[in-house]
Amino acid sequence: MSVAFDIAAAVAAELNTGFAGEFTATLTALPGAGIDDLETSRVSVVPRAVQPAQATRTRRGLDVTVDIGIQRKVGADLESDVPALAGLAQRVLDFLWRRPLAAAPTAVFLDAVNEPVFAPEHLEQLRVFTSVVTVSYRT
Question: Parallel, antiparallel, or unpaired: how do β-strands 60-73 and 25-27 relate?
Fold first, then answer.
């Protein structure tokens, strides 16, 4: 497997340990597939980018970026559903912040961002909450 998929799999495993019973994070290449079946929260982990980086004067490392998509169909009460699901995205970001990955012990956390907090176009067109947490690690 590529380093991007290795890190993404490690992120999914970490989320499944930390959020057991709340959701199951799945490593996937097609995060939008089956969008009609979102009665429970779907957490998709997708490798996004790999960029060479200078680790030391003599060693090159890789910066690996992984997207974590959080999706769920919302009910009629957007004013309570959207903040609750945005809170889940924030908890995912907080959970991964500076957390070592058990399945990738050489990966060092670099950064995390939650953008978009939610996608208004998905709410309007599909009645689906979609948020993306992006995390970066250096190997």
Answer: unpaired
Pairing of strands 25-27, 42-54: parallel
Would you say the pTM of this structure is higher than 0.90?
yes
Q: DSSP class of residue 112?
A: E
pLDDT, tens digit, for every residue of 39-86? Answer: 899 999 999 999 999 878 888 999 999 999 999 999 888 899 999 999
Q: Which CATH architecture has domain 3-31+42-138?
A: 2-Layer Sandwich (3.30)
- Asked if 23 and 54 touch (Cβ cutoff 8 Å), the reply is no
Q: Report the distance separating Cα 135 and Cα 97, nearest Å.
A: 8
For 97, other C-beta atoms within 10 Å of its C-beta total 11
All structural domains of the chain with their residue ranges:
3-31+42-138
